[in-house]
Amino acid sequence: MKLSINKSRSLWWTVSVAITLAGIISMVISWQNPSIKAPLRPSLDFVGGSRLQFERDCTKPGNCDKPIDINVVREVAKAEGLGDSSIQIVADKDTKAENGILIRTKNLDRDQRTKLQNALSEKIGAFDEQKNQIDTVGPTLGQELFTSGIIALIVSFAGIVIYLTFRFQLDYAVFAVVALFHDVLITAGIFSILGLVLGIEVDSLFIVALLTITGFSVNDTVVIYDRIRETLQTNPNRPIADIVDNAVNQTLARSINTTLTTLLTLFAIFLFGGETLKNFALALIIGFTAGAYSSIFIASTLLTLWRERTGQPTVVASAESIDTSTTSQDS
Description:
This protein is an alpha+beta fold. It is about 65% helix and about 5% strand.
């Protein structure tokens, strides 16, 4: 099977633009949402505050007969001065029945938490103390985690640009970074949509996932760029579109095999790794898939378009070839 990716490059770009725009629109909506106020639904890691998860004790007769009314929970929270809290109904991990509530709010001391719990128990039923979870993170720590994560992303992007500029040429580096932005935006956009629809939050592991995605994506792109450069050096007068198509086809099996074997591991983590790693694995699944797509269909086709439009020489003599020719002349 041979792909002629440059013949259908408008299709690949349209797919990417559509998914990216959907994510950006979701991030704007999320930012305007008073209960989120951020492009992605932030977890306690970033915003600080208290997160309380209560589950009803279904061993008590009649305690779980009626479903939890989220409006009743909101009324109780409002009566306790916590009207701006984020409230969700959550399902039990074992029975999958929606007998729990998750409340993310400002920092609460022990008395405030106890008072809120008692008020909720009176309205929706007694809670199982063994299943209740309470976490607290200070706002300063949350801000530091967010700042450190953004700095790490910026440094990684800068390092990749410098490396690719020296390894290849500036236009290679630019389009590789465009592909990286594509992967990060798609991953963030899908998580923004999931945050609006399913209440999925992003935590510090999400930043780790983005950094991992950039490394995987640029590795795949470098393999294709290496093959393009090799072909350009041996066939400098060949049309750039043909060279890129051949380079992609020559590395296609490697790209697919690497991505699939990695995804198998990630799906295993997603399904069996527990709640802590589930969103981390999901981010990597989305990002690695987008990375394989962008390396094949975005970075390479943009390079082709640029070389065709600018009329730039298809190959620039490498330092190695210059040294060889100089040596030959001297001898």
